[in-house]
Each structure stands twice: as C-alpha cells, then as structure tokens.
Specification:
By secondary structure, this protein is of the alpha/beta class. About 50% of the residues lie in helices and about 10% in strands. The protein has helices at about 10-35, 35-45, 45-65, 80-95, 110-125, 135-145, 145-160, 170-185, 210, 220-235, 250-265, 290-300, 305-320, 340-345, 345-350, 360-370, 380-385, 410-415, and strands at about 215-220, 240-245, 270-275, 325, 355-360, 390-395, 430-435. The chain has a 7-stranded mixed β-sheet with strand order 1-7-6-5-2-3-4. Helix 3 packs antiparallel against helix 5 and helix 7 (about 145-160) crosses helix 13. The protein is globular. The chain starts with 11 loop residues before the first helix and ends with a strand. The chain binds 6-O-phosphono-beta-D-fructofuranose and magnesium ion. Magnesium ion (MG) binds near residues 248, 249, 285, 286 and 363.
C-alpha cells in the first residue's frame, strides 16, 4: 500500500505537516530565545551568536516546510549523513523526472523524521550549541508534573517486591498483566502530540486499568505471558533470558517501562533487560541517554523513599549489567524497520539475541508497519514485511492513521461514531508476533 503523506488533504498527515510541525518549530525557536541569557553566561558572545544563527536557520526551515519546498541534502559531519542523503535520492528516484521530494508530497514518516534531523543539524552547525537539547526543558517539566503518578507507581512496585518470592504463577501473571498495561497507557501522552502543552500524566493509570480494558483493541498479552513463563520454566541456572525494550518517551512513560523491567527481573521471568534510546533529541519527548541517566539520578535523590529506592535499585541494576542501555543511529533514521537488516546489520544482529522485543509507542508502530495505508484487517505479521529479529510486540496508543490486525468490522465501527479514534490516544494495542 501507499505511504501516508501530506498530499492526502484532510488526513492526519496533512494536518500534522500543515499545523503541528510548524508549531513544534515555533516552540523550538521560542525555547532558544528564552535561554539567550543562559547561553551568554556560559559562552559569552559566541553563545549569543550561535543562538541567533540557529534561530535564523530554523525560521528558514519553517518557511520551507510551510511552502512545500524541495527537501535538501543534509550537510553536517554526523555519521548518518550518507544514509539520509541516499534516502533522499531513493525518494527522488521514485518520482517522475521533473518532480522533487518535498514536505507535502513525500511520505509523512520521512519528512517528519527529516524535520527533527534538520533541527539537530541547525544546532550542530552552531557550536557551542551543538549538543544542546532544545526539548530538555519540556521533558524535565513533564517529569515533575507527573510526580503524583510516579509516586503511586513506585510505591506500588516497592510493595509488590516485598513478597514477590511468595507469589504463585497465577498471581505473577496478574501482576504482569497489570504492569504491561501501565506501560501501554504510559504511552498515552507524548509531547509532540500537543506541541508540548498540557500533556502530562496527572494520575497513575493503576486504579483505572479495569475501565481502560475496553479501549485495548488488540490484546495479545496472553501470548507474551506464555513466552515468558515457558522460558522461565525451561531456564537452567546458566541461561540468559533477555528482553529488549525499544523506548519511546521520557518522563512518566519511561518510569512505567523501568517499573515493568524491574518486575520482569525481580520475578525472575527474565535475567537481563536491554533498553534502546535515541542518539539525538527526537519527536520532542523521546528518551536519549542523557534523559535515561538524568531520570535514574533524579529518582535516587527524591524526597519520597519509595521513589528513591526505585532509583537506587535501578542504578544497581545498571552497575550489575542486568539493565543495559544502548543507542544506535538507526532509531533516528527515516527508514522502516523492515530495512534494518540491510541498513543497520549490527543492530539487527544485536536484537536477534533477544527473547522478546517490546516496541513502545506510536512512532515505533509506524516504523514497524511502514506507515502505510493498510487495511485494518491485514495481519500484523504481514505488515511487518519480514522484520523478525526475534519474537516482538508493540505497546502503543493510537496517535496516527495506521492500524493493522483488527477483526473484520472492528475499525469500521468507529469511522462514523468516533472519527478521531486513531489519533486521540484513547485506544491502545498490545500486538505480538512470534514467528521468525
Ligand atoms: O506526529 C506524529 C506522531 O507519530 C504522532 O502520531 C504521535 O503523536 C507522535 O508522533 C509520536 O508518538 P509516540 O511518542 O507515541 O511515538
Ligand atoms: Mg515519542
């Protein structure tokens, strides 16, 4: 099927490119402007100069976007540049001779990723701001605004860990279901969705889980449970069971992922968790290594003893090597995951070591399925288009126009009753694919 794109007027892709992306650029410009004094204090005139130049590049970028100008090659010194420029050429080759890839004509997934990469390029060209994270402020703010939810979740986990050794299989299964759902609903809010406004998790979803069940459109949790419990039963003391979590947003969602990870380790369902984050600031709230480390440190020094205990345990797990953080530039390329084996062979090989890969969030879902106009009933396995490094699942709330693996009629029922069902973040899926 064809890729989603801004040229489909009235689609969510169209709306995103027309309104949401320019708004995000405006926010970035505003953030740089507001931190002017800080840049001056830290770097003197050079800081001010860099701020001015970056703002002017970004205003130009916003204009290119709004007037549907051709996409231009990247020209900074980062190692992903050749891959980006080859991708542009590839997009060019798909078109008639006199057409050029552009913001509204090219695939939405590509142009949206390209915007975030161009923001980064503007900064890279302007040292001393070359490693400045323009989204850090929004991420930190949303973390603090979610304090109540974080307290509730960390308290729950610490209570659970007290007697985890005594739980029977059924109780363990119940807890697994619960914490998997918490991690799913942790994806409800991301900062690119609302251009960073009013988008924090005020209350932990723990109490609401039963009511939220009807909003899970596909729920393969049973299959995921079978995989984990069977591997636990088969495991000898020397064996490793490894789960990989391809992270999405920092803030509350990251805490839900760490809580799930801690539970999987403490219950001995698995022996190692590998986290995958982004190398550069991405889609506003996505987790970078800096965010990951900042979060664990922040928790450790919190006033609440359950939160600080979580922080200390997680720091300990990192030191012991049972929590491992990875990043790879593939995650910030525009490519669909089915091209990972060719484009990032090392990453694909790394993921093949996993017993289960959990892909968090909407963007990962778009990349898993190629961000195409699939029929709702196409099987998840088919949409993956031969991407099978290991058994995998997606925990995703619906925030964009792509959904597969539904029952006949299941999607259609919303089309008239709830036209924004695919983009409002109210619905979620837990979709699993076992086959290799
Ligand atoms: O703007 C595109 C988009 O994929 C949205 O549909 C979604 O809100 C956001 O970016 C990313 O969401 P997530 O953080 O869940 O990947
Ligand atoms: Mg995100």
């Amino acid at each position: 099927p064809v890729s989603l794109a801004g040229r489909f007027q009235g689609s969510f892709a169209y709306f995103t490119i027309k309104d949401r992306l320019p708004q995000i650029l405006t926010k970035v410009i505003d953030t740089l402007h507001r931190h002017k004094n800080e840049f001056f204090e830290e770097h003197g005139e050079k800081g001010i100069e860099a701020e001015k130049n970056t703002i002017s590049i970004l205003s130009k970028l916003r204009n290119e976007l709004q007037t549907d100008k051709p996409l231009v090659p990247l020209d900074d010194k980062l190692c992903d540049v050749p891959l980006w420029n080859q991708y542009l050429e590839y997009q060019q080759n798909l078109l008639d001779g006199n057409e050029q890839p552009s913001w509204f004509q090219s695939p939405w997934l590509y142009v949206e990723c390209y915007m975030y990469r161009r923001i980064h390029e503007a900064l890279v060209h302007n040292p001393p701001l070359d490693d400045y994270d323009v989204f850090k402020e929004a991420k930190v703010q949303s973390f603090f605004e979610s304090q109540q939810a974080i307290i509730a979740l960390c308290t729950y986990l610490q209570e659970l860990l007290k007697n985890i050794e005594d739980l029977d299989e059924k109780q363990l299964q119940e807890e697994f279901f619960r914490l998997l759902q918490v991690s799913l609903w942790g994806n409800k809010c991301d900062l690119s969705f609302s251009a960073g406004e009013d988008n924090f998790q005020k209350a932990s979803s723990l109490k609401a889980l039963d009511n939220l069940k009807t909003f899970i459109l596909v729920d393969d949790t049973e299959d995921i449970w079978s995989l984990l419990i069977n591997s636990k039963k088969r495991r000898t003391s020397k064996d490793v069971t490894r789960v990989d979590i391809v992270l999405d947003n920092a803030g509350y969602e990251l805490i839900t992922d760490l809580v799930l990870a801690d539970f999987l380790l403490s219950s001995k369902l698995v022996t190692e968790i590998h986290f995958h984050g982004k190398c550069i600031p991405w889609y506003v709230s996505d987790t970078t290594k800096q965010d990951f480390n900042w979060t664990v440190k922040q928790l450790q020094s919190a006033n609440n003893r359950w939160i600080s205990r979580c922080g200390m345990n997680w720091e300990g797990s990192i030191k012991k090597g049972v929590f491992v953080y990875h990043d790879h530039m593939f995650w910030t390329l525009p490519h669909e995951f089915c091209s990972m084996a060719q484009v990032a062979t090392d990453l694909y090989t790394e993921l093949q070591k996993s017993h289960l890969i959990i892909f968090k969030g909407d963007l990962n879902y778009r990349k898993l399925t190629g961000d195409r106009k699939w029929e709702f009933t196409v099987p998840f396995h088919q949409a993956l288009n031969k991407f099978h490094p290991a058994p995998l699942c997606s925990l995703r709330t619906l925030k964009s126009d792509v959904q597969v693996g539904l029952k006949p009629g299941q999607g259609e029922q919303f089309v008239t009753s709830e036209p924004d069902w695919m983009i409002c973040g109210k619905y979620g899926v837990v979709q699993f694919d076992a086959s290799l």
